[in-house]
Amino acid sequence: MKPFIPQLVYIEPRALEYPLGKELLKKFQDMNIEIRETTSHNQIRNLPGDTDFKKYRTAKSTLVVGVRKTLKFDTSKPSAEYAIPLATGCMGHCHYCYLQTTLGSKPYIRTYVNLDEIFDAAQGYMDERQNEITRFEAACTSDIVGLDHLTHSLKKTIEFIGETEYGRLRFVTKFHHVDHLLDAKHNGKTRFRFSINSKYVIKNFEPGTSSFDERIEAARKVAGAGYPLGFIVAPIYMHEDWKEGYRELFERLSAELAGVDIPDLTFELIQHRFTGPAKKVIEKNYPKSKLEMDESKRKYKWGRYGIGKYVYQKEEASDLEATIRGYVSEYFPQSVVQYFT
């Protein structure tokens, strides 16, 4: 899969007050990409496309270069204490993605150029916790790896955290474009995680992302560069013959990582869930999706901000958890399952 290149770029004037903003402007000019000015991402209107379907796809290939105004970080449990805001939006087309809800009608990608201000805010959070480890999640609202070959914001963040005493960085990706990150001075303080799934889920619900083989090849490179490595199995989805599908996943993963030294391997397990608003957006943007979203088959679980989500029934969730934990124990007995949710 080729690295992401935007079809259209918007630049906020304030972004050009920062070195990275100027650097990206020149880069995109040299690439002959159409560049437009916008006072704010909220002012973007009339994206190319004569239908909502086409406009949505144009938005997913549109990049907004801007300034992160809100420097109060959101919490990011159970993955980390805080989400560090480097970008918003994703170039992938995963049908189930929770960004379908949070981004709604604005699925374009935004990258923030005021990195020093973001790092100062992160340092403030670390100082508040004094001698406690403070974990930052860099992929809460985006797949930052899929964008970083253009911006190198993630690489700068890895090296910033690498110089701190108590800071730790985490992010997850479905993209394999990691070569520029392999020489970053991470000092073992960044955990690089890859999202993996059964063949059925990747084939039917993850268009626009790197293949399983590409992700695992990248994981081998990352482990070789000394990064702590982890995998997120998400969403765990009860498709036909799902137990056999997920066993095959772990068989393939074990075979591909044979002989690779991974001293501190972690797994995070997340069952499929959806919200009412997300279902409407998914059905609109991916009308032929096979994704099962029948509320009558699910359990309603209250969420943050009063927006609940539909998860599997208790017995099904228990079966999912026991099955996947069993595979992890069988194929990667020295690893740690950090949580199931």
Description:
- The structure is a single chain.
- This protein is globular.
- A hairpin with a 7-residue loop joins strand 13 and strand 14 (309-312).
- The longest helix has 18 residues, at 314-331.
- By secondary structure, it is of the alpha/beta class.
- It has one domain: pyruvate-formate lyase- activating enzyme.
- The chain has 11 helices and 15 strands.
CATH architecture grouping? Alpha-Beta Horseshoe
Count of individual beta strands:
15
Distance between the termini: 31 Å
Give the spatial strand order of the biggest sheet. Answer: 4-5-8-9-10-11-12-15
Which consecutive residue ranges, at least 5 long each, have pLDDT under 50? none
Structural key phrases:
341 residues, alpha/beta, eight-stranded mixed sheet, 11 helices
What is the secondary structure topology, with strand pairs?
Elements: E1 8-11, H1 19-30, E2 34-37, H2 52-59, E3 62-66, E4 75-76, E5 80-83, E6 87-88, H3 99-103, E7 109-112, H4 115-129, E8 134-137, H5 145-151, H6 153-162, E9 167-173, E10 190-196, H7 199-205, H8 212-224, E11 229-236, H9 242-256, E12 266-271, H10 276-285, E13 298-301, E14 309-312, H11 314-331, E15 336-340
Parallel strand pairs: 1-2, 1-3, 3-7, 5-8, 8-9, 9-10, 10-11, 11-12, 12-15
Antiparallel strand pairs: 4-5, 6-7, 13-14
